[in-house]
Amino acid sequence: MGVAGLMLGAFVAVGLSIVEFPLQLTLASVVVFLFVAAGNSLNDYKDREVDKRAHPERPIPAGRISPETALVISGAFFGVCLVIAFFLDPISIAVIVSAICVMLAYEGGLKKGGLAGNLSISWLTAALFLLGGAVVGEVDKTIIIAAMAFLAALGREIIKDIEDIEADFDRRTLPMRIGKRNAGMIGSAALIAAVILSPVPSIFGTFWLGYLAVVLLADGVFIYSSIVHFKNPRKGQRLAKIGMMIALIAFLIGGIR
Description:
Layout: H1 2-14, H2 22-46, H3 48-54, H4 67-85, H5 90-108, H6 115-135, H7 143-163, H8 174-178, H9 180-197, H10 200-203, H11 209-228, H12 233-255
Helix pairs in contact: 1-2, 1-6, 1-12, 2-4, 2-5, 2-6, 4-5, 5-6, 6-7, 7-9, 7-12, 9-11, 11-12
């Protein structure tokens, strides 16, 4: 899924000319693939005690891999990501290095820090689109969609924390800190901000009107999600996810030129 996001970012930036960048996209795809593997391995290592009761089927609590091996895998894959990154352009290097730093900080404690954890995940989502644009030399064309992805992901992450407030016994999420309603207001504001940004690519001519027709559907879903989650957080976060999927289709259509 991460590689698909990378490719979508590149396609948005240069359209069908994406075929002119096989080496850059291959290297970036390997980086994204290994980054996700490294992040998941680190997550399994850090959450091994929680997973004994919450997710006993996962590799470490199930005894299929030792904690030490998971940590070595994570470190090795992050290291390979950095090595490969330096065969790319400076902007791509900056995006990759920042993503690794954010992931390490997230697993190091930010995920238990409320809004900071939500912001971290949102940045990692947005970074995929920025990296896709960077490796084809057109990062400026992906800034707006990265911003929309950031805001939509932030809204959904906060709403999901509201849904999971009873289950998150090992962390202090934003709803726990400021209350479900206040957190919900921030989540809704993020979704609405994404909606406000959505026409920008068409206004400035980056995308053709076919994008606008589809993204308006995503906007409607986001607006409804920003309202309904106050009564039904589960439905709200699922709608936000659907809105994000529709928005991705809109990005794909917008990139056709």
